[in-house]
Amino acid sequence: MFEDPMTKMWVSFIGMGLMFFSVILTIFTKEKLSGILRYILLTISFISIMIAGLIIFLVVFTGPVPD
Predict the structure, then answer these.
(1) Which long-range contacts (CB under 8 A, 24 or more apart) does 40-45 make?
(2) Band of the pLDDT at 67, cuts 50, 70, 90?
(3) Where do the domains of the chain lie?
(4) 2 close to 60: Cβ distance less than 8 angstroms
(5) Which residue spans traverse the membrane (predicted)?
(6) Among positive and negative, which fits the CA dihedral 6, 22, 51, 53?
(7) How far apart, in whole angstroms, are the C-alpha atoms of residue 18 and residue 2?
(8) Residue range 10-59, pLDDT digits in tens
(9) Does residue 66 register a pLDDT over 80?
(10) Contact at 8 Å (CB) between 25 and 45?
(11) Tell me, what DSSP letter sits at residue 3?
């Protein structure tokens, strides 16, 4: 799936960025918002953490990239 080591690195950075975004969005939403906007942003946060988990799962289990 990932033939180039640099591509695998950038994809993993995207996954870590999505995790960071999800945590920051969740903290902000729980402390500052209420009502329907809170639930919409928490849903976006949940979706982004699921996508990030899938990305990291794929990066880890594809194994090392051949030289």
Answers:
(1) 45/21
(2) low
(3) 18-67
(4) no
(5) 6-28, 40-61
(6) positive
(7) 19
(8) 999 999 999 999 999 999 999 998 899 999 999 999 999 999 999 999 99
(9) no
(10) yes
(11) -
**Residue 55: both structure tokens together:** 């990305």
Q: Which residue has the tokens 């928490």?
A: 42
Helix (H), strand (E) at residue 6: helix 5-32
Identity of the residue numbered 60: V
**CA–CA gap between residue 17 and residue 55 (Å, rounded):** 11
- The reported pLDDT for the residue numbered 4 is 83
CA 9/CA 2 separation, integer angstroms:
10
Number of CB atoms found within 10 A of residue 2's CB: 16
